[in-house]
C-alpha cells in the first residue's frame, strides 16, 4: 500500500531534550516536506527536500533540522525543543515539486513542557 | 502574513444548503490545490486547478481558478453531513519550490 508513515504519533517531552520524528514514504517520491499545523495558522512548511541530499528552508525553519540521506526517509530533528514547538506535525511527499499532489502522513502530536 | 487567505474561517450550515469558500492571494500561483482534512488525519487532495479560469467539478463540488491565478473558490451544492471537515487551499508560486497552505475553512453541516 502506497503510504507515508510517521513515528511517533504522539510525543510528550521536556524543554531541551533532543528528539527525532521519522518519516518514510514507499512511493519513490522526490519531493518531501515537513509542516506544522497550529490553530488559525493552517499548515506552514518547515523544510522541504527536492531530492536526496537537497534540502531547503520553508517558512518556519527556526529550531528544526532535517536530512535526506535516502530517497524514502526524511527525519525531522529538534535539537533543543521549546514549548513554542508544541504542535501537530505532518510529513508529506509528492512525485516531484511540479506534480503538486502531496500525500500526507498521519501526523505527530508533539507537546513540549 | 499568510500568503493564502481563506474565507470564511468557520461555516456552519444546514444540510441541503449551498456554500462557497474563497482562497485569495496577491501572488500568482502556478496551480492551486484543495484538500480536505478530517480530525486526527492528514489532508487529502480533492483537486488541482492549473489553468487560469479553469473550472473542475467533483460530484457536488465545483472548483474554480481565477483568471489571474491569484485566487480560487470551492462551491458545494446541497451540502451533506459527510462534507463536514477542514478545507484547505494550497499551492506553489511560479518561482521557487516552497509550498503554501491557506488558513483553512472549518465546515460543519448540520443534519
Poorly predicted sequence stretches spanning 5 or more consecutive residues of chain B: none
Percentage of residues in strands of chain B: over 45%
Interface with most residues: A-B, 27 and 26 residues
Low-pLDDT segments of chain A = none
Mean pLDDT of chain B: 94
What can be said about the biggest beta sheet of chain A? 7 strands, mixed
Mass-distribution shape of chain B:
globular
Q: Determine the number of helices of chain A (DSSP H or I, runs of at least 4 residues).
A: 0
Instruction: Kindly report the oligomeric state of this protein.
Output: heterodimer
The portion of residues forming beta strands of chain A comes to: over 45%
| Overall 3D form of chain A | globular
Query: C-alpha Rg of chain B, in Å?
Result: 13 Å
Look at the helices and sheets of chain B and give the structural class. mainly beta
Helix fraction of chain A, binned, reads under 10%
State the separation between the terminal residues of chain A, measured CA to CA: 36 Å
Strand and helix order of chain A? EEEEEEEEEEE
Helical fraction of chain B: under 10%
Largest β sheet strand count, sense and barrel closure of chain B: 6 strands, mixed
* SSE string of chain B, helices as H and strands as E: EEEEEEEEEEE
Beta-strand segment tally of chain B: 11
Strand count of chain A: 11
Could you describe the 3D structure shown?
The complex is a heterodimer of chains A (113) and B (111). With 113 residues, chain A is mostly beta strands. Chain A is built from no helices and eleven strands. In chain A, strands 2, 4, 5, 6, 9, 10 and 11 form a seven-stranded mixed sheet that branches. Chain A is globular. The termini of chain A are far apart. By secondary structure, chain B is an all-beta fold. In chain B, the strands form two sheets. In chain B, strands 2, 4, 5, 9, 10 and 11 form a six-stranded mixed sheet that branches. A five-stranded antiparallel sheet of chain B has the order 1-3-8-7-6, with no helix packed on it. The mean pLDDT of chain B is 94.
